[in-house]
Amino acid sequence: MNLEYVRQIRRTLMRDDFDVLFFPASSSILKELDVDIPCVYLSDATFRLMTNYYPHFSNLWEFNKRSGERAEAAAIEKAKALVYSSSWAARSAIEHYGACPERTHVIHLGANFDEVPHRNVILSRRSIQKDRFELLFVGGDWRRKGGDIALGVLARLQDRGIACTLTVAGSRPHGRVATTGVRFAGFLDKNTKAGMKALSQLYLQADVFLLPTRNEAAGIVFCEASAFGLPVVSTRTGGVESYVEDGMTGFLCQHEEGIDGYADRIERLVTNPDEHFRMSVNARDKFERELNWDVWGRRVAEVLRDVCDKNGHPD
């Protein structure tokens, strides 16, 4: 942590008046600040959950583990409200760090698209039966997101006589890919109109969103898939269950099921168009109900107002 950054915050707090302080994923900074202003802490996981779960949190020195635990515990204790992006993370705050359940909120992330097609446009496409099933994988970390597994799933489906293709955006493996029917779209920058349009078109053309991820605290791509009415086939790990409802908006596999587990779920959708369409409708409903930034903004604003009201800082 940069202590100079903490000093800059302290100087800013001395110059101006604030009703509430908002700390996104900043446990180490919140730990070092002693202020009378109520604080709200936002995160998609706790340090306890991340340790030996994500690759860059594995094999940590004991000193780093102790420091991370102290920072997490201090942030949770100091915060007047906690906002987590999944039930998985919120449970850890309560069970591992003694967070007050009444102060702990689960508010899902949203799809990172400025505009998405109207639901009628989306669902009209999902109701069309096609000769070839199109799978979409979007992820920047090829191995952690399960890109190698996705290639295996495609090959397995093709072995079963299912006509399908896989489009990959955001990453690719090293070396040559022997599997046929794979297209690598590269990195598509949503900060540009061209990148946004290209990625939107991929979501629109796909039939299923496949992300056999190994580790996932929360996934904005799940929100995006839901926005485009795509049933998701992913892994029951981390915070994924808050974004994909097994049997409703897609399917969640245990990692131990391997390639066949994911392939079985996709084959089920291929051979059951009514179920595929039902999940498409459910996915879009979930996006409109909770997986968008408008809802996120309203709910976070409610938390901030509540903290201000309870701590003598009314609107």
Task: Kindly describe this structure.
The chain is an alpha/beta fold and 315 residues long. It has 2 domains: 3-110 and 293-310, Glycogen Phosphorylase B (Rossmann fold), CATH 3.40.50.2000; 119-289, Rossmann fold, CATH 3.40.50.2000. It is 45% helix and 14% strand. It has 12 helices and 10 strands. The strands form 2 sheets. Strands 7-6-5-8-9-10 form a 6-stranded parallel sheet, with helices on both faces. The longest helix is centred in the last third of the chain and has 18 residues, at 293-310. 39% of the residues are buried. The mean pLDDT is 93.
Distance between the termini: 33 Å
Count of helical regions: 12
- The dominant shape is globular
Give the SSE order as H and E letters.
HEHEHHEHEHEHEEHEHEEHHH
The Cα radius of gyration reads: 21 Å
- Fill in the CATH topology of the largest domain: Rossmann fold
Counted beta strands = 10
Question: Which CATH class of the largest domain applies here?
Answer: Alpha Beta
Number of domains: 2
Strand-residue proportion: 5-15%
Helix and strand composition category: alpha/beta
